Amino acid sequence: MSGLIRAGGNALGLWRQVAAGATPALDPATRGAIARGHELLMAKARGNDAVYGVNTGFGKLASVRIPAEKLAELQVNIVRSHQAGMGEPLEEPIVRLVLALKAASLAHGASGVQPATVDLLVAMLREGVLPVIPAQGSVGASGDLAPLAHLAAVLIGEGEAVWCGTRMAGDEALAKAGLTPVVLGPKEGLALLNGTQVSTALALHGLFLIENAFAAALVTGALSTDAIAGSDTPFDARIHTLRGQPGQIAVAAVLRALMEGSAIRRSHLADDPRVQDPYSIRCQPQVMGAALDVIRSAQAMLLAEANGVTDNPLVMADDGDVLSGGNFHAEPVAFAADMLALAACEIGNLAQRRCAMLVDPVLSGLPAFLVREPGLNSGFMIAEVASAALASENRQKAAPAVTDTIPTSANQEDHVSMATHGARRLGPMAENLCRIIGIEALMAAQGIDMRAPLSTSPLLEKAHAAIRAVAPVLDRDRPLAAEMARVAALVASGGLTTPFGHVVERLFGES
């Protein structure tokens, strides 16, 4: 067990832990609000007034009044009818996030669900009962309806789930874990389906991978700078203070710290004939700093979404009102996902240009393709081509999704966010980015080796050692695919920056 799921105020660190396998409990302080919201909702259900989703149909059918004896059937029907997801199931870390995010939203007490429903969500997370949620089928409008219906199905003992690595019927998974399905009360099916938890989980998962890749790209960028015997003058604090961009200032400080004490740098301070390095070296603070500011903005938007209530209608227990609105519209998540996609693309573009520079003897001052006896050996020639292919793939994926609205539900839902597939592309983009940075890491480490007996800085020596622990020096041609994969995994896991986390740990603010 790790931490508590609160009704708001959950730090990004909690969501990172959930994605990594932690099982937080529900904060006991939420129980009063959940109970009050449920009591008010039940009172409204017993009354004569029409309340959307409680005693009416859904979407275009909101004007259809449902008789009291069929209210429970109404909630089961919405769960069954909305199970229209398609495609491969979401990965385990994302499903874990969906469960925790849904529990956090319901914990505000503004959805009117019974406490047992929230308890079961948290218990499923704790016991590892993970609903099988197809990745496709949501437009991010009235919540992530289709994927969340597949989650809700397991809560009522239907659908499918994975437990202990085995896919099985939902009721079987609950039984094996010692859990009992809930019987849905008024509005509970709708409350489970409404919300942006799937798109938010996908975006958070992408954010966490991109954060690791960003930090690693600062390390490989510094390594590449030293490998080509580049200048660290462009990282001088005075340059960046004059511009005043916060991300740029922070990135320049990290690059200075990483390169401090490099014998390679000292060796060419006095007599370097070059005036300026290429932009992929010289403008790292400007490009990476702008990307950092974008990531920070997306982080803030997603944190607010993770801690908010995205259901409809909403129960105001203190005022006795039930209000119908549109908090389920995932536009904030869609914008955040697009921002992250652009940042990931640009980080990869810059790293790829450094890969191209490293294999070019005119620009790098190193042997062609970073290998002895070029010609007989091709060295990193095709590794650089692979980095270009990955960067191109990310450029194709980086087109905005939020502007691709399309009317649905007989024009009742006439503007949608497309947040879910906008966020879903972040995982593959982040994987591509980690591979690009992994290729640069291999090349930069090779360049540092070729500068021997001169050594790089103490901090970059640690990064060099981490790379060499999974990939030896390339002295003659050999297959590189497995080594590229190992270094990409090092980047994705944060392992490349672990030896000096204190240098980069403050880049992303709240942990």
Automatic annotation (TrEMBL):
Family annotation (InterPro entries): Aromatic_Lyase, Fumarase/histidase_N, HutH, L-Aspartase-like, Phe/His_NH3-lyase_AS
GO BP, sorted A to Z: L-histidine catabolic process to glutamate and formamide; L-histidine catabolic process to glutamate and formate
EC annotation from Swiss-Prot or TrEMBL: 4.3.1.3
Subcellular location: Cytoplasm
The entry's keywords: Histidine metabolism, Lyase
CDD domains: PAL-HAL
Record's catalysed reaction(s): L-histidine = trans-urocanate + NH4(+)
Pathway: Amino-acid degradation; L-histidine degradation into L-glutamate; N-formimidoyl-L-glutamate from L-histidine: step 1/3
Source domain of life: Bacteria
A GO cellular component entry from the record: cytoplasm
Enzyme class label: lyase
GO molecular function: histidine ammonia-lyase activity
Regions that span the bilayer: none
Family (UniProt): Belongs to the PAL/histidase family.
Protein name (database record): Histidine ammonia-lyase
Source organism of the structure: Phreatobacter cathodiphilus
Name of the gene this protein is made from: hutH
